[in-house]
Amino acid sequence: MSPASWQRGIARILARDEWSRDEAVIETHAADKWFARSRPEFVALPRDASSVSRILAFAHRHRIPVTPRGAGHGYVGGCVPMKGGIALSLARMNRIVEISPKDFVAVVGPGVITAELQAAVEKRGLYYPPDPASRADCSIGGNIATNAGGPRCLKYGVTRDYVLGLEVVTADGTRTRLGGRTHKNKTGFDLHRLFVGSEGMLGVVTEATLKLLPLPPHRACLGVGFASMTAAIRALQAVFAAGLLPCALEVADEFTLAAARKRTGSARLAGCSAHLILELDGQPASVRGEIRTAARILRAFEPLFVDRGDGADGCEKLWQLRRQFSYALRDTGLTKLNEDVVVPRGRLGELFRLAARIQRRHGIRVACFGHAGDGNIHVNLMVDDSVAAQKTASGKALDELFRGVIGLGGSITGEHGIGLAKMPWWPIAVPPAADALHRAVKHALDPLGILNPGKFLG
Ligand SMILES: Cc1cc2nc3c(=O)[nH]c(=O)nc-3n(C[C@H](O)[C@H](O)[C@H](O)COP(=O)(O)OP(=O)(O)OC[C@H]3O[C@@H](n4cnc5c(N)ncnc54)[C@H](O)[C@@H]3O)c2cc1C
User: Fold this and answer.
1) Is any ligand 1 atom within 6 A of the Cβ of residue 197?
2) Taking 90 as the threshold, does the pLDDT of residue 76 lie above it?
3) Which domains does the chain have, with CATH numbers?
4) pLDDT of residue 1
């Protein structure tokens, strides 16, 4: 079938405002926030699951590639339509269908923006914890397809832990419900979880039923500067050893802090080689007691300073610094290759030593910050594009980083997914039998390979 005739065919089964071939619309659906670009031939903008089902049934019949897309804020090129075909945007399916304070669930369309759901549930005294830094822009469907996480996932778990049920449309257009709305459920296989982290390759999420928690009434934070990373890591290990489970525990290294100091003019960061932000939440009396205990533990490691913030406003003041890190690194004028590697918590020190070795060996500055509590550190290779040798060196440095992380018992991605960015390392990231299992599952659900082709399963 020629492109012109399938495009006419698919346009006939949709409402006029549910598709576009406009140059500008095609262009905006060609990329996410990573470096790759590939234009779709047709953009589908369905308003409901029955349109999604018709699109997929048609595409399946005519073997047309379909690439699902949420808000296009991915960091690995996951929604880039490598084989052209249809970009299937779920952005318009953005209705919060229900928030139930009795059942502690929310039912939402995939296009709902994460921060908007969080604000809506918090107004009702409820809590949806997964907090990717992109939450003001990314969608619940994208979060589910990438199993997104963030600082609070240390205590509360990642997106996976909040997905109770899904409506999905599989590659041939079959519409089905998996899981349910109860917080426990052991009926058959955990099939809805199969779609969590599936990067748009197994089916399209058209509705999600999410678990909610009671909103913790109080928060308190510590911002702590150290003269060495070793002291900071020992200090955070002591926090866990004392039986405390912060809701977030973030770390930043010397390069990141120097850039942040330049951007913010903060004299506080002078001489600071490592910085921790620790947050606790819960009932006011217990938070006040625990934050005192945490401060006492951290002081034993001779920090340069310990700042404390109480309540939402007090905490926000300390988090302001963390929010500057990405901008501060951008200010350096270097190209930031942001890798979201993760190691077992006990091997954090070795990860920082690996990063330092890579910096020395390849002559590329490395900036590390991130979720120290769960071993998920953003290792940013800061590449100087004006130096030709750095481009070649960055490929070698990435390879050394991923191999090193696997050697430490870690994974090449803790949050962003494989997408295109980490495709070259997929063969070393999983054993051959696990790769074969992935392909078997893919073949069972999408035998013609129309869903998000050109990614790590071909
Ligand atoms: C500045 C910045 C900060 C970030 N910080 C974090 C962070 O802290 N933690 C984190 O985890 N990630 C982070 N990310 C990455 C990104 O925001 C997440 O991966 C997010 O989940 C992507 O959501 P999206 O709606 O933009 O998805 P998209 O980019 O549109 O798509 C991502 C993937 O999901 C698939 N997909 C989207 N919707 C559906 C659907 N309904 N059904 C099936 N498949 C679908 C796509 O095919 C693609 O493979 C960050 C990104 C940026 C740009």
Assistant:
1) no
2) yes
3) 3-89 (3.30.43.10), 96-214 (3.30.465.10), 218-407 (3.40.462.40)
4) 83
Q: What is the pLDDT of residues 18-68, one digit of tens each?
A: 999 999 999 999 999 999 999 999 999 999 999 999 999 999 999 999 999
The CB of 338 under 6 Å from ligand 1? The reply is: no
Ligand 1 atom at shortest distance from the alpha carbon of 144: 21
User: Is any atom of ligand 1 closer than 6 Å to the C-beta of 454?
Assistant: no
Q: What does the H/E/C string look like for the chain?
A: CCHHHHHHHHHHCCCHHHEECCHHHHHHCCCCCCCCCCCCCEEECCCCHHHHHHHHHHHHHCCCCEEEECCCCCCCCCCCCCCCCEEEECCCCCCEEEEECCCCEEEECCCCEHHHHHHHHHCCCEECCCCCCCCCCCEHHHHHHHCCCCCCHHHHCCHHHHEEEEEEECCCCCEEEEECCCCCCCCCCCHHHHCCCCCCCCCEEEEEEEECEECCCEEEEEEEEECCHHHHHHHHHHHHHCCCCCCEEEEEEHHHHHHHHHHHCCHHHCCCCEEEEEEEEECHHHHHHHHHHHHHHHHCCCCCEEEEEEHHHHHHHHHHHHHHHHHHHHHCCCEEEEEEEECCHHHHHHHHHHHHHHHHHHCCEEEEEEEHHHCEEEEEEEECCCCHHHHHHHHHHHHHHHHHHHHCCCECCCCCCCCCCCHHHHHHHCCHHHHHHHHHHHHHHCCCCCECCCCCCC
pLDDT tens by residue, 224-278: 999 999 999 999 999 999 999 999 999 999 999 999 999 999 989 999 999 999 9
- Ligand 1 contact via 84 beta carbon (within 6 Å): no
pLDDT value at residue 391 = 84
Between the CA of 258 and the centroid of ligand 1 the distance, in Å, is 29
User: What is the predicted pLDDT for the residue at 78?
Assistant: 98
